[in-house]
């Protein structure tokens, strides 16, 4: 459905909102810079680590689970992006009697991606705390009673 | 009104200023509400000193934040550190550009409104990552990593839930979504069992995911005070911290507005006979219902663990949202088509 405002009008207003968002921040910080104190001391400039002297660099290795989550996210986010145009025209296709066709198309698309989710699930990539198989007691692995 | 709405140089700045005022007042009101409501729920009084029932407390806090020193510690990545609050706040502010205030009245009625909201609100995650990474602080980095992992994970069920509404309305424009739900509260997507019962399931999934998106309890791991001090904004002080704070409450309101537009009719009145009450009142009334609900949940539920967080998202909400999408589509095809 076409909106009342033209596209350039609407996106122009959006741009104004973005500029306004930045302006609010700039104005607030500038105003505050006139009245706030500025007295940096040695202790104040230290990184906060619960009162201790910071040890080592904070830019350290982190859990690579975060990386897996990001990968799965990209997979699904791209899926959603492709589904949005589909969702908009779904009703029109039903009205033209092509509903079953377009629904089947979506079902195949979502099905393949659901398969991806099942794969990641079965592989254990969705588990935050992964227990390694070889760490389980031998009796439990063979199905016996430990 | 037509004169105003036809001229972009009037309409754009005026709505931007109005929304800016709304967001500022919203932060003051929400913080006060949060303190007062949580106090009542815990049988305390809450703020009482400044003004009757302490209503000026948050105003005085704002003044205090303006007067605070802006500390930038040694070893911080300065450009990123300074840029981060602007990105977080700018993104949360820009989301409001598509708010449908009343019938035919929005600052910008984008044809891709829903998509715009989802796209712009993901910028907050970028800002959080910049803040945490540049702070040269272990708490900040870990808070940011958690925050981003959580924001991107929960965006998937959130977008899928929104998708079912787009599918039912046949449009991504927030105005059209509102118009489609007219005629009384039984036609609102979140309550209309006769229109499409699977939208009610989407409503639930959307609400849970939106709690995680705005980092509210039980999903407040990025700023879990007891384990991560302040999370990604540990090193921020004064006005820079205030921008993060303002953005957080703006996000709460934005989540409430989007929930009420998509699932509770937006500016639609409760009953058709009540349409003499202006649309913005309905919209903000519904949005504040969600804000109070968020506070209520914060006072009720404990925080999840990281592994539970991922479990809820990928093994409960995502399959659930996919099921709602397919079943909702099937319903539309079979029953309505």
What's the gist of this structure?
The complex is a heterodimer of chains A (146) and B (337). With 146 residues, chain A is mainly alpha-helical. Chain A has a domain of 84 residues: Up-down Bundle (Methane Monooxygenase Hydroxylase, Chain G, domain 1), CATH 1.20.58.
Can you walk through the features of this model?
The complex is a heterodimer of chains A (146) and B (337). Chain A is mostly helical and 146 residues long. Chain A has a domain at 63-146: Methane Monooxygenase Hydroxylase, Chain G, domain 1 (Up-down Bundle). Chain A has helices at residues 7-35, 65-95, 99-123, 138-141. Chain A is flat. The model of chain A has no long low-confidence stretch (mean pLDDT 79). Chain B is mainly alpha-helical. Chain B has one domain. Chain B has 13 helices and no strands. The chains are: A mainly alpha (146), B mainly alpha (337). The interface between A and B is large, with 77 and 95 residues.
Sheet with the most strands, sense and barrel status of chain A: none
Q: Which CATH class of the domain at 63-146 in chain A applies here?
A: Mainly Alpha
Low-confidence stretches of chain A: none
The total strand number of chain B stands at: 0
Order of helices and strands of chain B: HHHHHHHHHHHHH
Q: Mind telling me the C-alpha Rg of chain B?
A: 20 Å
Q: First CA to last CA of chain A: what distance?
A: 65 Å
Structural class by SSE content of chain A: mainly alpha
Helix content of chain A: 55-70%
Silhouette of chain B: globular
Please state the CA-atom Rg of chain A, rounded to the nearest Å.
27 Å
Strand content of chain B: under 5%
Supply the helix-strand structural class of chain B. mainly alpha
- Mean pLDDT across all amino acids of chain A: 79
């Amino acid at each position: 459905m076409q909106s009342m405002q033209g596209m350039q009008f609407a996106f122009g207003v959006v741009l104004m909102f973005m500029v306004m968002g930045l302006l609010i921040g700039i104005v607030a910080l500038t105003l505050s810079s006139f009245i706030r104190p500025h007295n940096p001391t040695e202790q104040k400039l230290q990184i906060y680590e619960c009162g201790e002297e910071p040890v080592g660099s904070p830019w350290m290795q982190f859990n690579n689970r975060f990386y897996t989550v990001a990968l799965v996210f990209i997979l699904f986010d791209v899926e959603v992006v492709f589904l949005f145009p589909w969702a908009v025209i779904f009703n029109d296709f039903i009205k033209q009697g092509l509903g079953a066709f377009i629904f089947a198309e979506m079902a195949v698309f979502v099905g393949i991606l659901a398969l991806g989710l099942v794969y990641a699930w079965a592989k254990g990539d969705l588990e935050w705390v992964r227990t390694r198989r070889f760490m389980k007691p031998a009796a439990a692995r063979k199905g016996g009673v430990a | 009104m037509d004169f105003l709405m036809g001229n972009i140089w009037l309409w754009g700045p005026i709505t931007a200023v109005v929304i800016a005022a709304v967001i500022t007042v919203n932060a003051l009101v929400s913080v006060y509400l949060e303190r007062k409501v949580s106090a009542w729920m815990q049988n305390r009084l809450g703020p009482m000193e400044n003004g009757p029932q302490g209503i000026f407390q948050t105003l005085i806090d704002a003044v205090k934040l303006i007067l605070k020193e802006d500390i930038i510690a040694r070893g911080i990545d300065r450009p990123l550190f300074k840029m981060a609050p602007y990105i977080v706040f700018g993104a949360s502010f820009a989301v409001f550009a598509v708010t449908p205030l009343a019938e035919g009245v929005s600052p910008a009625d984008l044809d891709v409104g829903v998509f715009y909201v989802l796209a712009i609100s993901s910028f907050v995650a970028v800002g959080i990552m910049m803040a945490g990474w540049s702070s040269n602080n272990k708490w900040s980095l870990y808070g940011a990593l958690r925050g981003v992992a959580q924001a991107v994970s929960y965006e998937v069920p959130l977008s899928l839930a929104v998708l079912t509404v787009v599918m039912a309305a046949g449009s991504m424009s927030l105005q059209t979504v509102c118009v489609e739900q007219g005629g009384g509260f039984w036609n609102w997507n979140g309550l209309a069992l006769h229109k499409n019962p699977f939208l009610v399931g989407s409503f639930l999934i959307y609400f849970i995911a939106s709690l995680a998106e705005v980092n509210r309890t039980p999903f407040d791991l990025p700023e879990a005070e007891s384990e991560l001090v302040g999370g990604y904004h540990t090193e921020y002080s004064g006005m820079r911290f205030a921008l993060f704070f303002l953005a957080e409450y703006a996000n709460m309101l934005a989540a409430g507005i989007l929930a009420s537009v998509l699932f509770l009719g937006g500016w639609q009145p409760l009953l058709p006979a009540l349409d003499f009450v202006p649309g913005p009142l309905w919209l903000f009334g519904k949005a504040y219902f969600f804000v109070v609900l968020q506070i209520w949940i914060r006072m009720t539920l404990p925080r999840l663990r990281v592994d539970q967080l991922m479990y809820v998202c990928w093994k409960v909400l995502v399959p659930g949202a996919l099921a709602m999408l397919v079943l909702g589509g099937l319903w539309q095809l079979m029953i309505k088509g």
